[in-house]
Amino acid sequence: MSSSQPEVFRWVLDTQNLWPTAKSTGTGPAATAAWAAESEAEKALGFLAPDERSKAIRFYHIRDAKLSIGSSLLKRCAIATACKVPWAEIIISRDKTNGKPYFKAAEPTLNHLEFNLSHHGSLVALVGSTDDRLRLGVDVVQVNLGKDVPAVREKGWKEWITTYEAVFSEREVRDMVSWSPPGPLTVEEIAKARLRHFYAHWCLKEAYVKMTGEALMAPWLKEMEFRNVHDPSPAESDGDWGETWENVETWHLGTRIEDVRMALQARGNDYMIGTAASVQQSRLLPFQELDINRDVYPFAQTYEHTT
Prior knowledge:
The chain is α+β, with helices and mostly antiparallel strands. About 35% of the residues lie in helices and about 20% in strands.
């Protein structure tokens, strides 16, 4: 058993400028496979297991292949660093019940690692801890105002929100429907602020559900809710970190859940990352931006899978 305050490390990898497209153009699995063979991604793919590699190059869009590669590299890097396991000996399994990836050490003397990943847009986020008391969840959302504002304008705010009522409690739906940002704002500005508030709710719920190991179709989903939700202020520029909000309350069937820690942080102008930890006193370390060459490749250099 570890110290009284479990520690959670948190990583982010931005794949936007990684493994740029070389000569290949277009979309589809053939274009993705061509990109993988002719770009810097070939090196990264060589550090993955055959199933991870084949999964990545089957994606229709190259951006999704990048996220898949980044996710696999982060998982392996976390295990290599936290558990002191050579890259070549890392075996990642999936829970047969919920599909959640996990690492089980072959030797009982090795560290346990609880971890969870999420990706959206160009970001991959990973949270992890070697404390065996913890269950963790993380979710990344990119606020898609370009798509959502026209949809809200067409349907109206209330109707747009109620399309998601299967995910949220009645109180959460009422909160989002009635919420309005302060100050004199244009109709467009109000719509954008309301969408950020919606995505704050969504990100928190996803992170919590992933912590439990269940999906958004969990039977208790509408019975639990978040109160005092605040969407953190965005950063002034892309790549910077914005506000963090941790005063959210978690409730289930009218009873407050005390032993859970939730955190929501803005990154750049349009991202939010939610973290859920099953021990309220968990120490959440600041997010660390990983550099693929400095922080990941050195652990993988001694081993490359062959096809």
